[in-house]
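Progress note, sequence design subtask.
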């Protein structure tokens, strides 16, 4: 399973097989995504001693995040799925960010900075193989997002939004807020792993069914919009 992440400042491409990490490459720098995505896919396949014909499916983070980045990842995943006749799975960027931290029973709030001085946020909790959304993804001002977390006794905050607006969350939540390391980012292998679970349990989609998921209307068309 190939996993593609282009929705944030970190480009990450990874491969998992039989629920095991196989290969991953990541680099920070949003302006590099369009230049490095295809070489990264070739490189992780080479690292894994695989070819495109060995893939069973493709998973991609389809939002929220950068409009341009999401579009790049989704278009690339759709094109590969069409050419290779493979199923494709869209994975929430927020879920991919939260999933690696869902090991201690504490809910995890993933936060991505929006260009509109807002954050995209969602709270997740471990629930068997597939994490569940305790608070569905939404877009809001940082102070409003912090108030939505007040019902939690403890909550782990992760992502660029958590650290950019750390003081806002600390002022509102106090010692109930725990912060993941600033290096945490959505990883290609995590997206591939979540995609494999989704593909196994619910099946994938055809390439034409995969759409970016924007929370605010962008200056482009062709996606589905959800306003938090």
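Output:
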């Amino acid at each position: 399973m190939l996993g593609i992440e282009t929705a944030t400042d970190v480009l990450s491409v990874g491969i998992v097989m039989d629920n095991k990490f196989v290969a991953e490459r990541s680099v920070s720098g949003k302006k590099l995504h369009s230049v490095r995505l295809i070489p990264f896919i070739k490189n992780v396949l080479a690292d894994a001693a695989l070819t495109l014909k060995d893939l069973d499916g493709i998973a991609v983070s389809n939002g929220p995040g950068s409009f341009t980045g999401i579009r790049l990842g989704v278009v690339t995943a759709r094109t590969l799925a069409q050419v290779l006749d493979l199923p494709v799975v869209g994975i929430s960027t927020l879920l991919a960010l939260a999933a690696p931290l869902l090991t201690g029973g504490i809910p995890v709030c993933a936060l991505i900075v929006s260009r509109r001085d807002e954050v995209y946020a969602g709270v997740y909790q471990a629930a068997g193989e597939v994490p569940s959304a305790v608070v569905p993804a939404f877009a809001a001002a940082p102070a409003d997002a912090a108030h939505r977390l007040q019902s939690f006794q403890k909550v782990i905050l992760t992502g660029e939004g958590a650290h950019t607006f750390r003081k806002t969350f600390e002022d509102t939540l106090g010692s109930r807020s725990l912060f993941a390391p600033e290096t945490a980012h959505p990883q290609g292998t995590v997206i591939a792993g979540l995609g494999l679970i989704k593909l196994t349990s619910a099946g994938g989609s055809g390439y034409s069914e995969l759409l970016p998921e924007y929370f605010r209307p962008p200056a482009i068309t062709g996606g589905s919009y959800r306003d938090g």
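The longest strand covers residues 20-28. Work on this subtask will continue into the next period as scheduled.
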